[in-house]
Fold each of these.
Amino acid sequence: MDKENIFEKRESAPKADYVAATGVPLKKPSDVIPQKLLRAQLPLPNLGELDVVRHYSHLAQLNFSVDTHFYPLGSCTMKYNPKINESMARLEGFSAIHPYQSQDAIQGALELIYDFEQLLCEVTGMKRFTFQPSSGAQGELAGMLMIRKYHEIKKRKKTKVIIPDSAHGTNPATASMCGYQTIVIESDSGGLVDIDKLKKVVDDEVAAIMLTNPNTLGLFEERILEIKDIIHNKGGLLYYDGANLNPLLGITKPSLMGFDVIHLNLHKTFSTPHGCGGPGAGAVGVGEILEDFLPVPVVNKKNKSYYFDYAIKRSIGRLKSFYGNFTVLVRAYTYLLRLGKEGLLQTAHNAVINANYIKEKLKDYYEVPYPKTCMHEVVFSCTSQKEKGAAALDIAKRLIDYGIHPPTMYFPLIVKEALMVEPTETESKDTLDYFIKVMKEIDKEIDNDLEKVKDAPHTTPVKRVDEVKAARSPNLKWERTGV
Amino acid sequence: MGELRFAKSHEWARVDNDIITVGITDYAQKELGDIVFVELPKVGDSVQRGSAFGTIESTKTASELYAPVSGKVAEVNSELTSNPQWVNEDPLGRGWMIAIKANDSSELGSLMDEPAYEQFIEKESH
């Protein structure tokens, strides 16, 4: 197997710098570049096209992706990204426009943003959206900055944000970034917000509560309306982390649960690429009371034309250059139109059915500490496996050998040896059955061939990495050797 | 060596007059796994009982460290920055984290003694 870095490759023929004779007179570098900037030696690889193509095609084949493997990474909603999204984003009218073009010349793009906003308002019940934030985390920041400004204008002294102990780590981070103290409340024995404990910590200084619903255990917060009243009665607001919206599509809306501001990860629920395949987009929706605080610009319509509107009274300002990651919006808009109302509802149903199918089939093998019917994801605890010598980490690594991406591990923090499985609606029953079979097989291996699990993965180009050494003394730079 | 007391959040506190040395328990280091980073306050900083005074990171997770008593930081084990593994190797010795000059040592009364803590983790792990 070829594991060479491209910078370590030798020259090949024909070289990349070969240019056939032409009538254009060639200039020497020293004719155009000042002497002091010239380098005699520039150790770049000089490879022919074929070698370059093979190198990168090979790297692509080593990749683990939704297009090639089952990817049950909990809380990340790694659903399949339909190829029609890509075709639409590549339409020249979208991909070749320039942000400095006049608004008259980009009416189609503005119309798309406008229409997409209307659709998301319908899906979530919110009043308006901004598409400026370039990620879920930036979306959270935008939402919490709006909440802060709202309280400032009301001249209320607000110092705290309440967050359940099952929350995503970004929630307390965002609250801290906005200058608030985070108050963590323990979940009750069923894994939901403990209403009594909530009542004890809520006072006039609470700015907001940040919640995901369903929460990170995959459980629906059934008492959300009580939570809403407790917070609103003290002048606090409700922030919805949209990471887990997938199982609610078409069934209910964050607005009906009393949320004042929400962020949606378009790269989760609305099938745009994740992470490095991105860029991301954190759409942020607000109810009426926060409409005046949205980042600028928003797209509005006057007569029959669309325009960027900067006249928002109490705007928190700009968050990103131009108008966010526009072609991500094209993909998400395509997804919504393609599914329609019925399709969205089916999405939610299938996401829930798939997670519960896995839960039911595996609950006698892997402990389910919060056994209620789950929504889009199920959290297993590998404590009994750990007692036999294989931790959640080992099981996750062994899954790679079977061609399955590891689930989210050791999260939420309130479950020991957690494996958090979110199959999403796009997987077939065959794939789910394969995953179930493999998980049972690994459980057996722990009894019969523990070392095989402890040393996994065996089939990958890079074997078990020393994560401790990587974290304690990270080597972040590649250095050329032996040239 | 003073008497050891234990917090529900798995810190230990060793009492020596009004100076309280703090670290995390052997159970805590085992649960966290290999420690890769410890972030501690500076000498002179104030700490509040029950509030975070620092952060500890393992390959699994990052957690807050909670002060068992209010007071001022009198001493910091700055060597943990380059030797975080000491928390795993010797949590009650070389892996100590900070020493607090307590405002009110009687706050320690609410902490558990060793047998009570043993019982507590027995319950926690089942």
Amino acid sequence: MFSSVFKKIAVLSAASSLALLAACGSSQEQAGPAAVTLLTHDSFVVSEALVAQLKKETGITLKITTAGDAGAMLAGAVLAAGSPSADVMFGVDNTLLAKATNADVFSAYTSKNLDLVSPALKTDTGNGVVTPIDYGDVCINIDDAWFRKRNVAVPTSIDQLTQPAYKDLLVVQDPATSSPGLAFMLATQAKFGDQWLSYWKQLEANGVQVSGSWTDAYESAFSASGGTRPLVVSYATSPPAEIVYAANPKPKKPSTSVLTDGCYRQIEFAGVLRGTQNEGAAQQVVDWLLSPAVQADLPLSMFVFPARANTPLPEVFTKFATKVPNPLQLPATVVDANLKTWLNQWDEVMNR
Amino acid sequence: MWVFPALFLCIALGLPLAGVLRNSLSDISAVDFSPQFGIAVTAGGQALISTIGALLIGLPIAGILATYRFRGRGFVQALVTVPFVLPTVVIALAFRELFGSLLSPGLALVVIAHIYINLAVVVRIVGATWQQLDPRMVVAARSLGASPWRAFLTVTLPQLKAVLASAASIVFVFCFTSLGVVLVLGNGGTRTLETQILRQTSLLLDFPTAAITALLQLIVVSIALLLGARASMNATQNARNLRFTRLSVIRGIRARTYVFLVAIAACIFVILPLISLASGSLRDSHGWTLQWWQSLTELDAGTTRLGSPLTAVVTSVKYAVITGFIAGVIGVLAAMSVLSHRLGRAILVIALAPLGISAATLGLGFMLAYGRPPLDLRGADLLIPLAHSIVAVPLVIAVVLPTLRSTDQRFAVAASSLGARPTRAFFTAYGPILRIVAFAAAGLAACVSLGEFGAASFLARSSSPTTPVQIVKLLQRPGDQSFGVACALAVILVLITLTLVAAIDALSRKRWVKV
């Protein structure tokens, strides 16, 4: 008996909701030709002044869209390859690069300033579609005070971590759910080759702890943060970050250091998305990311090293950030071809 | 009337899912099924343990809240609800703070956190039915010499069977599809299909396998929900005839001690992790400090990080209001359809389906359907509240349905027979209840939006992140500062949520709404 009433209510609420949708939709600014959308991951940050400067110098209004972590961002870009929702993408790293190029996400462009990038960083540009912007190393971090207090020698290579002296001291992340965890797994693969699984078997026998996330491993399990384990997989730039993000008054020097063996190099790239309506302006944004001002801003914004050679570094970096002499790296195509198998093998060895 | 919710579900849920499937199932032949089954079994075991734990701990609390009137009852009821609407990541963090030195990540921590979160589901759902049981039957059993325990086993428990099954099915679904808790407190041996989907979408970019895994998850969830829905249909039919909602005064020293102990234990269990968050927001390596609260407005100022931490709170509140509106309207309409349409049960199961749809799947689907022209909703900041509405609608229905069902239709018949036109008669009968129930439902949806993390983290956005996403972002960098400010944000979220839940409870004390 009430169906007509229900109908009326339904129509009314439908109409009001649609009106709300329309109102919200129309408030959206129309992007002019000189507006460029930069698709990036959640960790991306630069100073606002630099965005203003870009607008002043080139007339380009930069809109930043973040889409989860690097993998989630790339997943969206791959599904939308050819008809992208943005013009430029920043944040694909050398682990995922082959996924991006296989899906033909980028159009051909490398920055006109590519020759100013350190040679080691541009061995792979996905056949001329991406430009290296920054790099960092995933390394084991050491709680120095812990070792000093117990008179235990600080490890100098990751081979030693299977020895009884370092039993129950290391915490790593699950490579399936954590980016540094994955990098460390790839580092063992690069260092030990065919023997990498037996290395993990020994680590497991020596009491390695596996956390689901960097947050848990570093903030809870690491002894420098109040946990019980003095060795943790993190970044070579974590010690300077400890200073910058410390409580006031800031400590004079970090209480942690970096094990320079078994480090995996992560390079982050930017590229123009294939199918953009703004090819020219998008290319300018890639150049902007490699400009001296943005490059100098990166270390303190994202705790990475600038890709452009001879970029001046902030003091906290020159003092406390470790430059890793021989970081490990695997070709993007090799990672892409084997990643699934390696993850499954790792699961098997670690009984996950 | 069913057209509108159906249309909404089709557009907001069907379209994105179709997009994912179309993009994924093109080369299904390459999919390797076997590992997913193993994970499903592991996750099923974990969810079963968590469910049993939540029932064991939740039942005594539901019991005292449903039978006795005592000072602080409203507070206890609001308090146990808070964990459910808090971001899982925040809870995981709190537990790690609390048990960090005692328990290493793994099954035990995951299960404890799941019990903590789902306590509210047991207390609220079971409590609502328990409150309607005829207390005279227990009195009769006791006067015939049965101990309280025996009276519970032989009189109360059999009457609760159906609602227990229904609550258990929902808790099982939440634990089976858990993401945030497993990521922070798991050790790789506690994976769920949801973490597998995350791995397949955002690490291996293996969309066919991800789609199959999502489908497998949906099947398991649907089975669990169907079993629960059948039980709850029977339960409400029984309960409709008997409505005793009067609470009794506690008599006797033993009963008094029992109620006191259970209430105190419940409060300690719920509050302890929250206190560890609060203390985290007030401490640094040197001792007590207020600097984290002061830096809420300043941190990351002058960068493109899309606003200070406090901006995230504003964003969250804004999304919560929109979600409350959308999910409130859709949920109430859907509940009315379930009641009045002959395909009610089918509508119910479809409307509950979002409970089992992975946040990663939902996020990707939304990106595909609405993340680009011609329907680019990102700029309008509508994607996230839309996704939140999808997540909240099942819970709104769960709140609205029993209330509407127990409303006496005779009011409407009487009104019509007195000459009221259908519109007037409808509002005479349902108006007062609808007004209250709609507000309670919208409030609940707003709570869900405030705490939602999975879909919000996956969706592309060009404005400030929501508070849970901001908290996780802060936790992803080293240093005391990041941790302290994250804790401060979590405390703000807890306070907003607690206020909202208390407001809903105040409404429901008018006896019409059973949240």
